[in-house]
Amino acid sequence: MARKLVITSGKGGVGKTTICANLGAKLAHLKLRVCILDVDIGLNNLDVVMGIEKNIVYDIVDCIEGRCRIKQALIQDNNEPYLFIMPSTQSLHCDKITKNQIKSIVDELSSIFDYILIDCPAGIDLGFHRAVFSASEAIVVTTPHISAIKDASKVVDILSTYELYSTKLVINRARGDLMAGNEMLSVADINNLFDIDLVGVIPEDDNITTSLNIGGAVVANSKAGKAFLQLAENIHYNTNKIINFQKEYKGIVGYFKRKIKRNI
């Protein structure tokens, strides 16, 4: 049976879908069967992030309403043969879709995959609860910004009312230069604000922007690519190794690196 992880955040724009897409790609790279399920109904963009929007014939709502079988809606990733995506719909008139219907889809997928990643809508309204209801584990995504941290903390409190096996934290868009110069909350500072374990830190990286523009996962040998692989390994092997992106900006040499980066 699959591990079912909902990827969520309190605030929009923190990179939740990017985390979901790249985590899925790295788990698949480990030869694990992975399905990413987009349940951001009406405001979906996972298909664009993954670069598979032109391949869509059926979506999750088609499955729920009986217009296709579940396997017909699955789209194999262009680069990772073990990775499949079930797209959502652009229709804004799907309020009648229930959490039990989503759970029925997840439960059926659970028998053929090792991991199901549920891309959750931002916020804490109907879409959030519809996504979390089907999960057994949760990953909360935040950035090192106070507003994102505050909203993520609220989400952690709400998740505690669900019977989840675990809830873990990912810090996205971390700037090693700013953290080293005490101009941004450090990883340790952010981690201390939460009562859940930190499972990954993803650095700010132009390769992420590039991947979003062309569709697909970030390149493997980039800083972000290495961080996503470490995140996948931490989740699968139950480790907690965090790449230190501040190290190169420490000391005298690091001071000048920070100055140069600031002026670029």
Task: Explain this structure.
α1 packs across α11 (223-237). The chain has an eight-stranded mixed β-sheet with strand order 3-4-2-5-1-6-7-8, sandwiched between helices. It has a single domain (3-263), classed as Rossmann fold. It is globular. It has helices at 16-29, 46-50, 60-64, 70-73, 99-109, 126-132, 146-159, 176-180, 187-192, 206-214, 223-237, 251-263, and strands spanning 3-8, 34-38, 75-76, 83-86, 115-119, 137-142, 166-174, 197-203. β6 (137-142), α7 (146-159) and β7 (166-174) form a beta-alpha-beta unit. With 264 residues, it is an alpha/beta fold.
Layout of secondary structure:
Blueprint: E1 3-8, H1 16-29, E2 34-38, H2 46-50, H3 60-64, H4 70-73, E3 75-76, E4 83-86, H5 99-109, E5 115-119, H6 126-132, E6 137-142, H7 146-159, E7 166-174, H8 176-180, H9 187-192, E8 197-203, H10 206-214, H11 223-237, H12 251-263
Helix pairs in contact: 1-11
The number of strands is 8
- What composes the largest sheet? 8 strands, mixed
Terminal Cα span:
49 Å
Order of helices and strands: EHEHHHEEHEHEHEHHEHHH
The rounded Rg comes to 18 Å
Structural class label = alpha/beta
Approximate shape: globular
pLDDT average, as an integer? 92
Q: CATH homologous superfamily?
A: P-loop containing nucleotide triphosphate hydrolases
> Can you tell me the number of structural domains?
1
User: Spans of 5+ residues with little confidence (pLDDT < 50)?
Assistant: none
In the CATH hierarchy, the third-tier topology is known as Rossmann fold
